[in-house]
């Protein structure tokens, strides 16, 4: 139980402060362990951070693999991926925040160092397949991939701000709010990629 507790505590700390400002003392206190255990298991703060990134990316990668491995139409593959990505981030709402902070504060260096495949490039392949088959409209698939992932993930990064919008739920990460977000994103992606008549 110690390693999962440390990783869970670290996810919260890194999502709140990014890598540079995160404090191992805070992680240890939140995980209810002595600070030395963090270094015993992960060797350094950077090692712990990279373990959190890997843990955050794994279910996203699996969601994409499942979409690509099935014998689905391009539309179904894309919508299946979007649905599974949102399910993953609904279960782990801090993951998109950590990756945004990694990009903003760290320039994506840890992601590159870990050799994580580009999620954008992989979604671009789904879009290229749909354009080639005529299921999707003509578009720049690279920008399309960026827009789709942004549409899925920005909500989690802005959850605190969204909860202050008049008329919105005070808990933007409630099950009901996240179910609405998922339904709206899927509808938006389906309409945005449909061929023009």
From TrEMBL:
Pfam families: TetR_C_29, TetR_N. GO terms for molecular function: DNA binding. It comes from the Bacteria. The keyword DNA-binding applies. Residues 23-42 bind DNA. InterPro entries: Homeodomain-like_sf, HTH-type_TetR-like_transc_reg, HTH_TetR, NicS_C, Tet_transcr_reg_TetR-rel_C_sf. SUPFAM superfamilies: Homeodomain-like, Tetracyclin repressor-like, C-terminal domain. Residues 1-60 form the HTH tetR-type domain. Keywords: DNA-binding. This is TetR/AcrR family transcriptional regulator. It comes from Tunturiibacter psychrotolerans.
């Amino acid at each position: 139980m110690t390693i999962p507790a440390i990783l869970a505590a670290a996810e919260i700390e890194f999502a709140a402060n990014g890598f540079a400002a995160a404090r191992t003392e805070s992680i240890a206190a939140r995980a209810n362990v002595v600070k030395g255990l963090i270094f015993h298991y992960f060797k350094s703060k950077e090692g712990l951070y990279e373990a959190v990134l890997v843990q955050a990316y794994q279910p996203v990668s699996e969601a994409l693999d499942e979409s690509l491995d099935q014998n689905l139409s391009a539309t179904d593959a894309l919508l299946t991926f979007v649905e599974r990505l949102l399910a993953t981030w609904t279960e782990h709402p801090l993951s998109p925040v950590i990756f945004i902070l990694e990009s903003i504060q760290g320039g994506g260096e840890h992601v590159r160092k870990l050799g994580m495949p580009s999620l954008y490039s992989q979604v671009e392949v789904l879009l290229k397949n749909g354009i080639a088959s005529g299921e999707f409209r003509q578009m720049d698939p690279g920008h399309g991939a960026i827009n789709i992932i942004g549409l899925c993930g920005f909500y989690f990064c802005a959850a605190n701000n969204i909860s202050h919008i008049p008329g919105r739920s005070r808990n933007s990460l409630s099950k009901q709010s996240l179910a609405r977000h998922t339904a709206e994103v899927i509808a938006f992606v389906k309409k945005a990629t449909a061929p023009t008549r």
